[in-house]
């Protein structure tokens, strides 16, 4: 495998670190070369926590380059939108947990809350696939999938 | 994965996925390190977490969190003079605190060896600046090794320890944030513990250890000679890497994490440059560099932060009369921020566009609202800021210090309008008070910082009679960096200890006006701050509440714990929005009609918000509404 990039994002306190560690060890257990790094800035609740996981033998940096994530897993709606816009590659897959932990500016009524409709791709706006989950996130039986590109491509 | 402590103490070689901050601890064990000290600070505190997984009676070295970085450095130095291999670790700006001691170390004959592990922070992820501590290495004649990933962290620590022990000089191992936190599989060696000789070997004859007058100059001469020996070792070191892509036109000299970013970028290129990746970054392996320069027509120096390599390499090329074109930093952006793959891609595209595929130059806008870090739900600092703000005039000046309470500068509190470094608030506030009788000046301070670096500023305020008010935000722990104990916590990292009571310290320093209140008593805190700022003398308000993140985590582990939360009684709520706009707990969500609800994933049911509602609409769950209002959960 050349490279497979996973970008996990959410809000501090949601458990990004634990999910990341689980995926990292699962990938290793499955025999993949893997690197990862968590970025959490101030070690505190309420900020963005991101984890980069990179599988493959031609991986150097632990950081997923912008717009190169094959898979984005987001544990919050605003962070799903942010990661979809900045990290997801064309035809990448987004899985997100549909909850809202309102950022400061939303609570102060300065910006609008992100709505699910902003994240579901429509044909033409982004060639990606998003899966929206309600609790529990695993197993994924509670998820609905939207796709703006043919199913045949999904398996490619 | 096996238990980390068991893994770190394993005798036989093994491979495991670890972060850089864990790999270094195994390296300490294998190297025979005997004393380790630190003061907590990102990106290094997980080193202590890994050390803590080894049971104290099996830990092969002594470890402590000292009161500050300078003290930690002095402790490690003292231990090394008795013949113990010692290590001190702390964050980038911690070296400023340690500097007075640190800059002397290379003058001394450190018989046990001493490794100084620095967690530098390009990108200022969790620091006030992104200072490049290689400058300190130059000014203090101290060698620096810099790894790029966890495997190198392990090997480079071993090399730093060997170097330090053989030349009896301090050696810096410089880590950066994403080297500390990167995870990958590392192959570790065996650990064969050698019999310990703990005889105190300090002998003045090993010195001199008194750098005064002519001796200081002689010691400097020795330090320079040792540095020259390190240069010889660096020339021959297999840790320096040459990536030979048979490109005789273009080469790149780089180091640390930017090397991995560069490899990522040029991996897809049709014409890859040759790359010299330095492990020894001070002193530079001069011959190795001359050789590389000689073999290329143009050489790019790719280094994060400042132009430390660039200036030296240009000087080498000048002295040697080399015709090579050297490309250093080309604009101000090259000096700022972490050299991520995206950043390095832009830099390389700027000088050699043919080495970067245009399709990989991706720049996308972020449409989502920013999410600054917040004080946690139930945080005592929130109650404190909410209450203190009501005691002050809008023109009064509030001075922040380092810690969780620094976040008070943000909306909606705007408390703490300037910030410098650990312990600086009291004296900066004192200066702001000179010739100023119209605007009250209030300083904030956390309790770990109080012991770390605040005492001189407080003593100065007493000694020179500066009429300001210090508000000591006492939460019982070093919260920002992950709840490390401090001198008033009642235990240290190893054992229970007598807490040093903050109030008695202030009493002993001669502070005449000391007030003391739990921050959840918001009305009383407001009243006390009004009284304190009215006094024409130095006054202190101890605003106390335990760190609720720590408290809640501990409570969750106890049997019978039930999660509590508050709810909004919608029949009473008049949408005044004090809770969401002024008190500002992240637990409160508001919809576009202005209806306020509770995010029950976040709320801890502490109830500190209840007193802020002018219509008494916030009630504990179960009292009026049995938790129906739950938009924080999944939709």
Question: What is this structure, in a nutshell?
Answer:
The two termini of chain A are 14 Å apart. The radius of gyration of chain A is 15 Å and the shape is globular. With 156 residues, chain A is α/β, with parallel strands linked by helices.
Textual characterization of the structure:
The complex is a heterodimer of chains A (156) and B (635). With 156 residues, chain A is of the alpha/beta class. Chain A has a single domain (4-150), classed as Pyruvate-ferredoxin oxidoreductase, PFOR, domain III (Pyruvate-ferredoxin Oxidoreductase, domain 3, 3-Layer(aba) Sandwich). Helices cover 23% and strands 31% of the residues of chain A. Chain A has helices at residues 16-29, 77-86, 104-107, 116-119, 151-154; strands at 4-11, 34-39, 48-55, 69-74, 88-97, 129-133, 143-147. Chain A starts with a strand and ends with a helix. Chain B is globular, with a radius of gyration of 27 Å. Chain B has 635 residues and is α/β, with parallel strands linked by helices. In chain B, helix 16 (447-463) links the parallel strand 16 (441-446) and strand 17 (469-474). Helices cover 34% and strands 17% of the residues of chain B. In chain B, helix 14 (380-389) packs across helix 18 (522-534). In chain B, the strands form six sheets. In chain B, strands 3-2-4-5-7-6-12 form a seven-stranded mixed sheet, sandwiched between helices. Chain B has four domains: 4-236, 3-Layer(aba) Sandwich (Rossmann fold), CATH 3.40.50; 241-360, 3-Layer(aba) Sandwich (Rossmann fold), CATH 3.40.50; 380-553, Thiamin diphosphate (ThDP)-binding fold, Pyr/PP domains (Rossmann fold, 3-Layer(aba) Sandwich), CATH 3.40.50.970; 562-620, Alpha-Beta Plaits, CATH 3.30.70.20. The model of chain B is unreliable at 624-635 (pLDDT under 50). At the A-B interface, helix 1, strand 2, helix 2 and helix 3 of A face strand 8, helix 10, helix 13 and strand 21 of B. Strand 2 of chain A pairs antiparallel with strand 8 of chain B, so a sheet runs across the interface.
